[in-house]
Design goal:
- With about 300 residues, the protein is of the alpha/beta class.
- It folds into two domains: about 110 residues, Rossmann fold; about 170 residues, 3-Layer(aba) Sandwich (Rossmann fold), CATH 3.40.50.2030.
- It is about 35% helix and about 15% strand.
- The chain is built from eleven helices and 13 strands.
- The strands form four sheets. The protein has a six-stranded parallel sheet with strand order 10-7-6-11-12-13, with no helix packed on it. It has a three-stranded parallel sheet with strand order 3-4-5, with no helix packed on it.
- It is globular and about 60 Å long.
- It starts with a helix and ends in a 5-residue tail after the last helix.
- The relative contact order is 0.11.
Length: about 300
């Protein structure tokens, strides 16, 4: 976000429009970034569409995260890295002097503006939850909110990951879905409506914003005078790489149990490790979406 802020400062008044991609979508929820009128939109979805997307759209690209792929020749001359990211044969920018990026952008023709029929809502935070906690508590006590689900994580371009969209589509209307990381793109275009003014689909932000989810869960437990492990909450996570593993360990250390992970078992989880995770943390593997929902909510097959 710091790199984006500096880029917005340096491109102000130049006629350059700035778009976010993938994990940078939550930038549109920060007033300090949204105030820049040339932050005009978001292109694409999860990380794995970047080679096609960046080849199609003739724009200067600034890569800031570990989800960046080695570029194809179609855009290798107009992609730059900054921060911890390095790519072979790609110019790296130390600090925040983005003059090379700006010069490249000015060389290129303006992108054709396209509007989307899908409106994505982001920017929910711990403060939003705290401000609405009394309302949320009331809805829980009245039975209007039965259960919370945190659905998200690291997405991958495999058919098995369609599980997460189908899972959310099948959830009853008295449930609220929190989401984060690039796994959100499986579900964040769904119109799930509201429960007495509380959105049923709430985007908490990036993968690194898992700490926000933890703080929200802790605040909810405090409001309901219970512990985290007894909340009407189930985590359904998609796994792909090491960052997701670190987040999983953090969640387990908080006392969260019954977490679902998928769509496949990580390669490093042998039978012994899986046995320990199941016996000590009630870790579960995703299966059939409808069956998993029935098991979570204690419902019987119709």
């Amino acid at each position: 976000m710091k790199a984006l802020e500096e880029l917005l400062k340096q491109t102000e008044g130049t006629g350059i429009n700035v778009y976010t991609h993938s994990e940078m979508l939550p930038a549109h929820g920060y007033p300090g970034l949204k105030k820049y009128s040339h932050l005009v939109g978001n292109l694409g979805k999860a990380w794995y569409d970047q080679r096609r997307l960046f080849a199609e759209h003739k724009a200067a690209i600034l890569a800031t995260s570990n989800c960046t792929l080695i570029p194809t020749d179609a855009y290798k001359d107009r992609i730059f890295t900054t921060g911890p990211v390095r790519l072979p044969g790609v110019k790296h920018i130390e600090g925040y002097d983005f003059k090379p990026v700006i010069e490249k952008a000015l060389e290129l023709p303006p992108l054709e503006e396209k509007t989307s029929e899908v409106v994505l809502t982001t920017g929910f935070s711990k403060s939003w939850f705290l401000n609405h906690m009394d309302k949320i508590k009331e809805l829980i006590n009245k039975g209007k909110i039965r259960h919370f689900f945190l659905v998200g994580g690291c997405d991958s371009p495999t058919p098995k990951n369609q599980y997460y969209r189908r899972f959310v589509e099948l959830l009853p209307k008295d449930t609220v879905i929190l989401t984060l990381a690039c796994g959100k793109y499986r579900i964040n275009d769904l119109n799930l409506g509201e429960i007495d003014g509380v959105p049923r689909l709430i985007d908490l932000g990036q993968c690194n914003d898992a700490i926000v989810a933890v703080e929200i869960v802790s605040a909810l437990a405090e409001a309901l005078k219970t512990d985290v492990g007894r909340l009407p909450l189930t985590l359904v996570l998609s796994w792909m790489e090491q960052k997701a593993v670190a987040i999983l360990w953090s969640l387990l250390s908080l006392g969260l149990r019954g977490i679902y992970i998928g769509p496949i078992i990580p390669a490093w989880v042998n039978d012994g490790i899986l046995k320990v995770l199941k016996e000590n943390f009630d870790l579960k593997l995703t299966g059939d979406p409808a069956e998993d929902i029935r098991n979570i909510l204690g419902e019987t097959r119709p």
